[in-house]
Amino acid sequence: MKFEVNGHEVFASTGGRPFDKKKPLIIFVHGSGLTHMTWVLQTRYFAFHGYNSLAVDLPGHGLSSGKSLKSIEEMADWVSSVIDAVGHKEASLVGHSQGCLVTVECTSRYPNKIKTLSLMGGAGAIPMNPELLSLAENNDPKAVDLMMDWAHGPAGHFGGHPVPGLYHINTGTMLAKSRTIQNTLGVDFRACDNYKNGFEAAKKIKCPTLSILATDDKMCPVKEGKKLASLIDGSQVDIIDNCGHMMLLEEADRVLTVLKKFITTNYPPLSS
Amino acid sequence: MSDKKKELKPNTYKFDTLSLHAGYQPHKNAGARQVPIYQTTSYLFDDVDHAAALFNLERGGHIYSRISNPTVGVLEERVASLEGGTAALATSSGMSAIFLTIMTLCEAGDHLVVSSQLYGGTVNLFRLTLPKFGITCTFVKPRDTEGFKKAIKKNTKGIYGELVGNPGNELMNMPEIANIAHEAGIPLIVDSTYQTPYLCKPFEHGADIVIHSLTKWMAGHGSSMAGILVEGGNFDWMQNEKFPTMTKPYEGYHGLSFAEEFGPTAFTMKARAEGMRDFGPCLSPQNAWNVLQGLETLSVRMKKHCENAEEMVKYLSNHESVAWVSHPSAPNHPDTELANKLLPNGKGSMIAFGIKGGKDAGVAFINNVKLASHLANVGDTRTLVIHPASGTHSQMDEATLKFAGLSHDMIRLSVGMEDIDDIKNDFEIGFRAARKPRLVSNQ
Questions:
Q1: Do A18 and B255 touch (CB under 8 A)?
Q2: Which of A57, B65, B77, B130 is deepest in the core (most CB within 10 A)?
C-alpha cells in the first residue's frame, strides 16, 4: 500500500492482504540498504493471521520516494509517523540490524505507542568498518558484496534457502543494488556509525521485548545482542545455531516460529 | 610483519566451489555428503496452520513434488548461483523451461521479438504453437540488431534469442539488444544452453531471464532430460503497465502481487506458483540428481570441449572436403570481436560446417563416421553429428530454413571430449565416403 509521511510517498507491503484498521498493527523495519522484501517470509504469515502487517520501505529505499534519512533518530520519528499516517494509535515493532537501532530508539521515544519490540540481529551500537563505510559512500558495488559476505553465516554461503529455488546471497545483492548504493547503503551505514544512544534508549524500554540472535552473526555478534538485551527489563533472548546475520532468510522458519509465539502472546491478533 | 593494510575482499564462494556445493547444507540432511534423492511425491505438514501457510506462500517449504522437491531445489539454487541469478526453476526439459517462461510472461494478444536462429523445436514453438495461445512472434536475424528494435510493437512483452544461434553459430549482440529491450520496458530472455555459465553469464551482459536445456553441457553425460529458467533479479516489472499478471493482485493467491511481494525473485515465484501448478512440467528428483553429478565437473569439461573444438576448427578449415566452417573461434567468423568480448573463457564446442558435394555428401559423411554419434542432441561428452536439414530442423519449409541460415550442405558438430586424433581419424572416414557418396555406404 502507499501512503504519505512528511510529504513523501511511502510504500509498505501489507503481506498480500488489504489493510484493515480494526486489526492490530505490526511494523517491520528493514536493515541498511535493503527493502521490505527481506521480510516476505514473516509478513505474509501475520497478514493472514489477524494482523495488519506493514513491511515499510524507508524513505529513499525500495519503492518509497524521498531521500534517505540521515540519522537513526530521524528514522525512529518517521516510524512513529507511519503509525499515525495509517490511522493507528499503537503498533508492535520488528527490526532487523539497523532496523533494531531504529525500533529501539522509537520505542524509547514513544513508549505509549509501542506494544512489543522484536529485534533480529540487533545491537546497541553498530560501528562501521571505515573502509566498508567509504566504499558505500563512494557508490562502490564492492560494499554490497562485502555486506552480503559478512551478513551470511558459513551455512548461508552454501545456500539452502527455505523457499525452493531462491539463492539468497544474490537476492540480497539485488535488493541492495536496486537503488543508488551511496544514497541508500552509504547514508544508512553513516547513520548507524553515528548513532550512540542505543544502550541509553534500551534502558527506557518497558514493553515486552524479544531478541533473536545467531551464533554465526559477524555483523552484530551474540555478545553484543545479549548486552543490549540485558539492559531491557524482562527481555527474552532466542539464539539460533549455524546461522548468520540474515537470519530472517537463512532460518526463516525458525524466526517465524519464535516471532509468532512472542507476538501472539503479547499482542494478540484480531480473532476471526 | 608487514604493516601494509589488508584490502577488504568478499569471501563468497567462486565458480568451481559453487558448482560442487551451492544449494546444499549436509547438516540439514542427516549429514549426507552427497545430495540425497528425495524420491517422494509429497511432504508431511506439521498441522493445518502449517499446511495453509505453505499453500499461501506465507513460508518456504515443500508441498508436492510437482511444485518443488528438495533434490530439485538444490539443483535450482546451484544453477542460480553459477549464473549470478536470484532464483531458478527446473523443469522436465529445456523446451518446457521455454514454454513456462513464455506462459509466465505473456497472455493472449501479446507479441514477442525472436531471433530467427534457434533450435528447430524452439522455432516450431514460436512459429506454430504459441499462435494457438494467441501469442504471436516476429523473427529477426540474429545479427540484425536494429531489426530487433524495429520489430517491437505496443504489445511486445519480450525479446528472445540464443546468444550463439543453433545451428549456424551467428551471434546476437546481447548487450545492445538488452539495451533495446530495456528502453522498450521489456525483458531480454536468452537461451544460454550452448554456453553454460562457465563460458558466459548473460546477466552480466543485460539479459533478464536465462534458460538452459540442462540435458546438454550442464549435465554432460547425455543420460537425463532437464531444463531450467533462471531469473537475474534486475528487471523492474512495475516500471510500466505491460505486465499486469506480475504487478496486479492475483486471484489465485488471495490478491498477491508477485512483483510487490517478491521483487527480484517475482518471475520465478510466479512461474512456480502458477506455471508448475497449472502445467506441471516438473523435473524428477532422479534426473535432478543426475544433472548435479554432471555440474560438479562443469568447468573441467567445458575447458576440454573448447580445446577440442578449436582443434577441430583448424582441422576442418584446412580440409579439402570442407566448403566452409562456422565457429566463433574461426578467424573469418564475422562475430569474432563480439565473441571475444562475451565468451572470454572459450567459444563453445558447436561447429557448423559445409561439406563439399552438398546434401548427398553430407548424408554419406553422417552414415559413415563410426566414433561420432548421429543423434538429435548436443553437449554430450561424446562427439555428436547431425545433418540439420534432414534432422533437427526438418519440419521447416525451404523459406524458413533459408531465413534461419540453414543450408543443405550443413553438418552440425558437437565436439566431445575424446582424444582429438581419434575424432579427426573418424572424420577422415566420413570425408572419404562423402567424396564417393554413391560408392561407399553402410546402408
A1: yes
A2: B77
